[in-house]
Amino acid sequence: MNWSFALALAAFLTVTGGLLALLFIPVVREWRRPTDAAALGIAAEYTTDIEHFAKRFQARALAALRNPGAANGFGFFNGSPSQLASDASRPLIARSDLDSAKALRVHQPLYIAGRLRAGGGSRFSALYVAGDLDLGCDSCITQWAHAEGVARLREQCGAVGRLSAGVAVELAGGCWFERIRAPLVRAGGAGADRLAPNLFAPQLCASMLELPGAVQQSASTYLVDGDCALPPGRRFTGSLVVRGFLTIDAHTTVVGDIKARDGVRIGHRAVVEGAVTCGSRVYVLPEARAFGPLVCESDVRVGARAVVGLPSAPTTLSARTIILEPGALVHGEIRAWVLGMVKAPA
Length: 346
Fold this sequence. Notes:
The chain has 346 residues and is mainly beta. It folds into 2 domains: 52-166, no CATH class; 204-342, no CATH class. It is built from 3 helices and 32 strands. The chain has helices at 3-32, 44-48, 52-66, and strands at residues 75-77, 92-94, 98-99, 105-106, 110-112, 116-118, 123-129, 133-135, 140-147, 150-153, 158-165, 168-171, 176-187, 204-206, 214-216, 221-224, 228-230, 234-237, 239-242, 245-248, 253-255, 258-260, 263-266, 271-272, 276-278, 282-284, 289-290, 294-296, 299-302, 307-308, 315-324, 329-342. It has a 32-stranded mixed beta sheet that branches. Strand 15 (214-216) and strand 16 form a beta hairpin.
């Protein structure tokens, strides 16, 4: 054997092995004691705040208005609809109201320093309105929109993505939506609502233990293994978990949370003062009230003049699909994972 060749080969293998070991030491160390095992952080305001994009766009637009010379990538126009170019290459700012009886089609983000009224068939991608927003029939917002006043969408309008308002969102019949936030969301258009009158039939105080099959799980929580019906005209105090379908009859109040696996029906002028959680469908009948969060894995239908949330305590309505009947009111936030719509008047 050529000893010089053997020594050279051994030296080569030793050096190569040493270099490979150096490369793999961090890998082995991370494998044995992970230092980056946590999930990637995502800003909370991006995922949960419906107004996230609107707030960022407003800050940029206000900076451009304070220093028009810099412009910060914005284009300016005087509010005349004829100056709006649908193929504009940069975001636009109107320093005054924008009022058009004809359709407007703007594919770039648009900031209006006053109010906006656009004719039927209008299309906007992203829109910030410092006053009221009024969109004509069959208009569409494809990304997000915010109005500091009232956002009013006429019949058959669509709001893809995020829609918010500082005062109220009014959705006429046939409108569809995904995510909405406002102190008041009114279905059926302007003038179609009035807060459900606070009129209740006399109620008898009742115990959850009076319900067939009810078992007390804790000081204030009760379980029914199967379907459950709360009789009319009663007032129950405590939280209720039902492993079947839960029916709350007319004029009955639950002072607590409810959770049901197979569905919930909240009867005419019935009230749930806590949260509603359901694995199947939820029916909120006309003039019923649900004060707390309403979260459903399936579908929710909110009847005419029914109310979700309170003016003093906005809440969340979240479900796969959501149908609002004319006159339904929601205080707070609506999240339809697939689609939300306002039923057209009969």
